[in-house]
Structures are given as structure tokens and as C-alpha cells.
Amino acid sequence: MNQTLTAVEGIKVGHWTNPEAKTGCTVILCPEDGCIASAVALGGAPGSRELALLEPEKTVQKIHALLLTGGSAFGLAAATGVVDWLEQKNIGLLTPAGPVPIVPAAVIFDLLNGNSKIRPDAKAGFLAAETASTEAHATGLVGAGTGALVGKYLGFEHASAGGLGAAVIKVGQATVAALAVSNAVGDIVDKSGNLVAGSRSPNREKALENLASLYVSPGTNTTLIAVATDAVLSKAEAKALAQAAHIGIASVTRPSHTIHDGDTAFVLSTCAKEAVPMMALSIAVQQVVASAIIQGVTASQNNF
Q: CA-to-CA distance for 197 and 9, rounded, in angstroms?
């Protein structure tokens, strides 16, 4: 059974991965007519493109793809390749000048994990879009999660692999799926609070008792979330669910949403199924996001 984001019918996912440079990008393609979408960024250091467009009061209602990428601010260039690919397919917001693809994007900082001079670019974004499929997508050290690290509060040298994960939950007839890239300051714990992965420093336990001793480089940490569903949503409801996604991050990431994290959550809906009560959806989003983070980190440990 497909336990990845493509369990939502109509959603495609493609990765571009450079294992030597330890970076990559992940493209989520919507059905040709787009997805209702919104997002919420918390923490002090987000890196993004087209985020303001996703606010409920903004005119554009749908996006055509979403890019999650490594390379820090440099990696936003990969979105141009996704836009170019969509333009070639004649997909985008209809305007008098022709279709204009709407492709929000968000980045993680992975420049210290591999070759900082090799970052996802327009060609990488194009290739990720070109290879996108409705099949179950890879997880672990792949795509935007290739160079992701967690547990960096005592230095990069003690960090563990973060990676890219996925999970799925059913809510009535609707499907809710999450894709997570965990590149957090904090450790990842399971739903019982047990350590899954994080700082490997021998001073970890003492450090957590002395918060003043922690040092984290500014702007080098982020958890990125993409939630997809087929339940009918308005843009405002998508934003409310993006807020719920942050609860899922916080439930398994310790600490999360720090001044040096750029945690960003996107929610997309194909609106192919009937509406589901928002109470149920918000709980499902929290659960599926937490599960996706744990799945990705767990899948990454053996290959780190």
C-alpha cells in the first residue's frame, strides 16, 4: 500500500538527488488544474518563494507545483526549472499572455553537509519535475532531504541524518498524506518521547540541562512539510491545517520553531472528495506530519 504523498490521487512527486554533494530537491506536481493551497512559516529563519501569494485573502487560489529544496537561498533557483517544465506543458494560471505556472518553494540549509558550491539549480528542478510520478516515492536521504541533519544544537559534527519522510492517514473517504524534510536544530523523538535521532555528542544530556550552553548557527535549520489531501478545502481552511501541521512538527522535534529554524508547512488539496469536518482533519494532519518526520529520520539512519 502506498504510504507516501502520492497516495492522494492526482499528486505526483519527483526527486533530484546529488549524493556526493549531499543536496537535492523534491517537486510536488498538482493535477493540471492546480490545487487549493496555503502555508504557514514559523521560526525565525524561513527561506521561501511565493509564500505571500498563499495567504487566503490573495487573489490566486491555486498552485500548480510545490518545490522543497536544499541549497539554502541558492536552491530557490530550482523553482525556475519547475516553472519552465510546466510552461512547456502549457500548465499555469490563465492570463491574456498565456498560462503562468504558480510554484511556491521553500529551502533548507544543507551547505555544510556536502559540497557547498553545488546546489539545486533550474536544471535540477526541471529534472525533478520531468521524473515526477504517481508511484510511491522514495524516502530517506533523497531529494530535498539528501543533506538534511537533525540535532545540531551542539554542533554540526554531532548531528544525525534528517532526511525526507512520508506518511498517510485516512479520514472517512478522504486521504491525508504528508511529506516531511527534517533539518532541525532539535532532536527527533517518537510519540512516547524516546530519542529516534539527534545530537550524538557525549555531552547531550548535560547540555539539555544547561540551555545557556547551546550554540546554533543562525539560519541553518528548517523543517519543511507538505500535506496533501483530496478533501474539499477553502484556502482559509488550508491555512488552518498548515497551522495544525506545526503542532505535528513540535510533537516530535525537540526543540522546534527556534529563532534559528525556518519551519514551514504547506497544505494542498485536489478537492476531489467531499468535505471532511475540520476538527477531524486538523487532528489527522498533526498525526500524519509527526509520523512522516519519524519515518524519514528512521529511513535515513542506516545510510548516514
A: 32
What is the DSSP secondary-structure string of the chain? ---SGGGSTT-EEEEEEETTTTEEEEEEEPPTT-EEEEEEE-SS---EES-GGGSTTSS--EESEEEEESSGGGGGGHHHHHHHHHHHTT-SB--TT--B----EEE---TTTS-TT----HHHHHHHHHT-BSSPPP-BSSGGGTT-EE--TT-GGG-EE--EEEEEEEETTEEEEEEEEEE-SSEEE-TTS-EEE----TTHHHHHT-GGG----TT-BEEEEEEEEEE---HHHHHHHHHHHHHHHHHHEES-S-TTB--EEEEEEEEEE----HHHHHHHHHHHHHHHHHHHHHHHHTT-
What span, in angstroms and rounded, lies between the C-alpha atoms of 65 and 92? 10
Cell numbers for 95, please give them.
492570463
How many domains does one find in the chain? 1
DSSP notation for 81-141: HHHHHHHHTT-SB--TT--B----EEE---TTTS-TT----HHHHHHHHHT-BSSPPP-BS
Determine the structural domain holding residue 223 and report its residue range.
Answer: 5-301
- What local confidence, expressed as pLDDT, does residue 93 receive? 96
Q: Note if the pTM is more than 0.90.
A: yes
CATH code at position 118: 3.60.70.12
pLDDT at 239 over 90: yes
Residue 205's pLDDT band, with cuts at 50, 70 and 90, is confident
Is the separation of the CB atoms in 254 and 231 below 8 Å? no
